[in-house]
Amino acid sequence: MSVSANQMTEEHPMEKLLRMDRIPHIWCPTCGLGTTVTALATAIDDLKLNYDNIAVVSGIGCTGRVAGYMKLDSFHTTHGRAIPFAVGLHIARPEMKTIVFSGDGDLVSIGGNHFIHTARRNVDMTVICVNNFIYAMTGGQVAPTTPLTARSSTSPYGNYEHPFNLPRLAASSGATYVARWTALHVRRLTQAIAEAISKKGFSFVEVIAPCSTLYARLNKLGSGLDLMKFYHDNAVIKHGADVNEVDIDFQSKIIVGKFVDIEKPTYLECLNEGNERVLGDKYKPWGGCNGDN
Amino acid sequence: MKLWRTPLDVDKLKIPRGELHIIKERCKGCGFCVQYCPKGVLKLSDEFNSKGYHPPEVVKPDECVNCDLCEMLCPDFAIFCVRVETEEKEVAN
Ligand code: SF4
Ligand code: SF4
Ligand code: SF4
């Protein structure tokens, strides 16, 4: 058996979910972002979801490009505003699966307040945050996730700020599902994304992924492949780990797994229940703009 | 394949086989597929694509078990594997 001559005629299985006119994508060689897109697309396929009922919302940044590559209802919003955009979308069309796919700089720095308050209100959506420890697209500046002592273009002598522990931030803000995987754990990541999409409430998946051009280069860590090898040797799977103990230090062990999976009424359920309590039969529960309201 | 204990249904088992498709022009030579293929099926070739990257080549076509890991890890959607049906039983004792 040899690699067949018709290799260009057969379609890559991902093509049905990608805007092929934009491929090849702009991500650098050995960047892990493409792998995370495959995980999302595979999860959508595994769940047998209707493509017309999925919205993908991204903000700005290298990860922010994801929405633009997905052949779904996808929205590329302004910096940090992916979550508020998604909240509006969810309230107008609650029957849709709303998925926010963006980076650490976008979601938890400029968009940090949106992140904690949407988790607090338990708005039913999935937030996938690709954490590459740096502001990549804008030139490698220090991010709120850059590990202490790691170098970036604005911390050339090593970062002296403590980073966020994202699973703890999400869990303490009220998320009902919290998991962390690396791009190397692509199958478990796919499964976590599928669980997060199926979960009612605010679900959060952090994905540690290599940024070769900035994070790896500025820290002399080699290529994205070297970071994948690092994850292979240093990721420790610990389901149900206490989120207080999953901090990431520079080149430390990375604890991955599913940390939180709880049930809690969502924002829309609380809204409808509250209004019914006050207005009784006069209130017609809100079911979105597409329903018979 | 070496087995520690011969399974009782050994004559019914069939190792899945895959055929690889590499879209060379899309590849950026990251090596993820080569590094993590559990069967060592791939190797980065000496050949260049038009952007100057070395796409992988299949060096052990008969070893591929269609696990799709290369396809899942590839960040550039440049490799995929299709299951092929085989006749012969390939589980050795
Ligand atoms: S700058 Fe970093 S995150 Fe952005 S595409 Fe390149 S490797 Fe990926
Ligand atoms: S499908 Fe699995 S066995 Fe076949 S080449 Fe890819 S990684 Fe290797
Ligand atoms: S994983 Fe994809 S981009 Fe990387 S070397 Fe293999 S085929 Fe090329």
Describe the structure.
- The complex is a heterodimer of chains A (293) and B (93).
- Chain A is α/β, with parallel strands linked by helices.
- Chain A has one domain (23-266): Rossmann fold (3-Layer(aba) Sandwich), CATH 3.40.50.970.
- Chain A contains ten helices and eight strands.
- Chain A has helices at 33-46, 66-69, 82-92, 104-110, 112-120, 166-173, 186-198, 212-218, 224-234, 267-279, and strands at residues 54-58, 73-76, 97-103, 125-131, 177-182, 202-208, 235-237, 254-261.
- Chain A has an eight-stranded mixed sheet with strand order 2-1-3-4-6-5-8-7, with helices on both faces.
- In chain A, helix 7 links the parallel strand 5 and strand 6.
- The longest helix of chain A is centred in the N-terminal third of the chain and has 14 residues, at 33-46.
- Chain A is globular.
- Chain B has a domain at 23-84: 2-Layer Sandwich (Alpha-Beta Plaits), CATH 3.30.70.
- The mean pLDDT of chain B is 91.
- In chain B, strands 1-4 form a two-stranded antiparallel ribbon. In chain B, strands 2-3 form a two-stranded antiparallel ribbon.
- Chain B is α+β, with helices and mostly antiparallel strands and 93 residues long.
- Chain B is elongated and about 50 Å long.
- Chain B has helices at 32-36, 69-73; strands at 17-22, 42-44, 56-58, 79-84.
- The relative contact order of chain B is 0.34.
- The A-B interface holds A 1-4, 7-8, 10, 12-15, 18, 23-25, 27-35, 38-39, 42, 183-184, 186-187, 190, 223-225, 228-229 and B 19-23, 26, 28-32, 35-36, 53, 57-58, 61-62, 69, 71-78, 80, 82, 84.
- Residues 27-33, 55-56, 73-74, 76, 78-79 of chain B line the site of one iron/sulfur cluster (SF4).
First-to-last CA distance of chain B? 8 Å
Structural class of chain A: alpha/beta
| Oligomer classification | heterodimer
Count every beta strand of chain B, where a strand is a DSSP E run of 2 or more residues.
4
Second CATH tier, the architecture of chain A: 3-Layer(aba) Sandwich
* CATH class designation of the domain at 23-84 in chain B: Alpha Beta
Sequence of secondary-structure elements of chain B: EHEEHE
- Measure the end-to-end span of chain A: 60 Å
Please list the strands of the largest sheet of chain B in the order they lie side by side. Answer: 1-4
Largest interface: A-B, 37 and 30 residues
Report the biggest beta sheet of chain A as strand number plus sense, adding barrel if it closes: 8 strands, mixed
The 3D shape of chain B can be described as elongated
> Architecture of the domain at 23-84 in chain B, according to CATH?
2-Layer Sandwich
Radius of gyration of chain A: 19 Å
- The tally of structural domains of chain A comes to 1
Order of helices and strands of chain A: HEHEHEHHEHEHEHHEEH
